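User: For my dataset I need records formatted as: sequence, then C-alpha cells, nothing else. Please produce one.
Assistant:
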Amino acid sequence: MSASAENSRSLCTEIIESTRSLFKSNVSHFHAISILFLLPIVLALVVYPSFHIALFHPNYNFTSFSLSNFEIIVLIVYTFSLVLFFLCAVATTTYSAVQAYHDRPINVISSIKSIRNSFFPLLYTFIILHAIFISITLVFSLIFVILVRILQYLGLIELKHDSNHLLFYVIPSLIVLIPVLIWLLVNWSLAYAIAVVESKWGYETLRRSANLVKGKRGVAFRIHLYYGLVILIIVVNGSRFLGKGNQWRSLAVILQTALSSVMGFMIMNQYLVANVVLCMYCKDFNGEKLIGDKFASEYVSLLVDDEKNHDDM
C-alpha cells in the first residue's frame, strides 16, 4: 500500500513537472490565450463579489435575504459569461497543449479557430456534468430533509431554528455528500480534455474519462487538489482586500487585486495544461495514442487556413 502511494506521489510530481516544462517552452502562447479567456474569469471571481455586495447590499444587511429582478439578471449574465470564457479557455488551452506536447508549431489564431470544433461538445459535456452534480445534491438534500422530518415525527430529535442546531445536522450530511461529489469529479476529470481531443459529447466523455482514469484516481485527485487549493487561496486572498466602503479605490488594493488576478490566470492555465498531460499519461498507461486521425487532420486544416489568411494579407 505504501509503495502504491509512493508511486502515486511520484507520478503526480512527474506530471506537474511535465506541465511546467510544457508551459515554459510555450509561455508566450499560453499567456496570450490566458489573457483572452482566463484573466476575465479570475478577475471576475476576485472583484465581482465585492462589487455585487456594494451595489445590491451596501449596508451589509443579510438578515433578510431577497433578490431583486435586476440582481437576478446580473447574476445570470455573470454566470453565463464565466461559462463562456471557461469553455473557450478549455478549448484553446487543450488544443494548444496537445500540439505542443507533440512538438507541433502552435499559434494563437489556430488555437482560437479550434473553438469552433470543440465548443458544442464542451458545452454539452458541461451541462451534463453539472446537471448530474446538481441532481445528486438535490436528491441528497431531499432525502436528508425527509429523514430529519421522520426522526422529528418519531420524537427522536428536536429541530430548533437556530444556526448552531442546524449545523449539527447539516455537517454530517455534507461529510457524506462531499466525498461522493469528489469521487465523481475525479472519475470525470478528463471529460473536457476528451471532448476536445476525441470530439465526444456528454455522457460519452464521462464514461471515457472514468475508463481512462481507472487505476490513476489517486494521481488525478492529487493534481486537482493541488491546483484547486492554490487557485482557491489566490482568489480568496485577492477578494478579501476588497472590503467595505471605498477601500477598493486605494492603490494597495488595486495592486493586490491585479497581482492576484495575474497569478490566478497563470495557475489556472497550468491546471488546464496539467489536465491534458494527465490525459496523455492515462492514455499511455492504457497503451493508447493521444491524437487520433481526426484531431490530426483538424490540426492540418487549421494550419492551412492560417497559411491562406497569411497569403491573403
